[in-house]
Specification:
four-stranded mixed beta sheet; 277 residues; 7 helices; 53% helix
């Protein structure tokens, strides 16, 4: 397993379990069960077991299966990008986020099919029980799941085409949700900036070292766009610094202007090796 895979596995399982449990809590009863005593006595136990199997077994298992499929799909796609000295692709945790809702939606359909087969001719009666007990609330919940599953698949497609590839001659960058790859020779690197903390989009200061590459065309790239997959951020920055001849500039904090490369900085010596650990 790759670093972070255990955390991603736990995230996929926990995400599906928690979301399944919350779904049951959010489903309102249109009518109390006491108004349908005969149907309740006949089908409430079945419904309880179906919910438990979905919550504890099917949804988590499907999340893991889809997660593993997405990770392997990402690795296969990355292998076709070309030879690289350093290759940055989405982490297992990001793939786990993309797996939860498709897994839940597919397992809901699977459980519905199994219940229909199991009940046979009694399924029409069970549907009447569902309509009395839950009304239209279930339809809205499952419709929401289908929408979230579609958005998750769109997220997965965007992750599949997100990478940073470093070779001896250039760096190739394809940011998240970008349709075109940006490719730069090392001679096109203008600045390499770092700090022990940086300003996030929300305006808060985050104590975590990141590196920002500024290019001569005015665009930039930050290691912050690949959270969780850069245990060797310093190695990446040092390699690009060596290839481009541009020293790493150490700042007190990476402001928004520093991250977008709007501000010009004087050359600075690279920080000591232990500074970015």
């Amino acid at each position: 397993m790759q670093p972070g895979d255990i955390a991603a596995l736990l995230l996929a399982v926990a995400g599906s379990v928690i979301t399944s449990w919350l779904t049951g809590k959010l489903l309102p009863l249109d009518k109390p069960a006491t108004e349908t005593p005969q149907l309740t006595a006949k089908y409430q136990t079945l419904e309880m077991w179906v919910g438990l199997i979905w919550l504890i077994l099917l949804a988590p298992a499907a999340s893991v299966v889809i997660w593993r499929f997405l990770v392997r799909l990402g690795s296969t796609h990355a292998s076709k990008l070309g030879e690289a000295l350093i290759l940055l692709v989405p982490s297992g945790i990001e793939w786990a986020l993309a797996a939860v809702f498709p897994a839940m939606t597919l397992t809901v359909l699977l459980m519905w099919l199994c219940v229909r087969i199991y009940l046979g001719r009694q399924y029409a009666e069970y549907r009447r029980y569902e309509q009395i007990r839950w009304g239209a609330s279930r339809i809205w919940i499952w419709s929401l799941f289908a929408i979230l599953a579609g958005l998750s698949l769109l997220f997965a497609v965007a992750l599949l085409d997100t990478y940073v590839l470093v070779t001896n001659e250039r760096i190739r960058i394809n940011p998240f949700f970008s349709r075109t790859e940006r490719s730069y020779l090392y001679q096109e690197v203008r600045d390499i900036r770092t700090a022990a903390s940086w300003i996030a989009l929300a305006g808060n200061e985050v104590e975590n070292r990141e590196y920002v590459l500024c290019f001569k065309d005015g665009l930039s790239w930050s290691t912050d766009s690949h959270p969780g997959v850069l245990p060797d951020k310093l190695r990446l920055a040092q390699f690009i610094s060596e290839q481009s001849g541009v020293p790493i500039t150490e700042l007190s904090v990476l402001s928004r202007k520093d991250q977008s490369c709007e501000s010009a900085l004087p050359p600075a010596k690279a920080p000591p090796r232990g500074a970015a650990q």
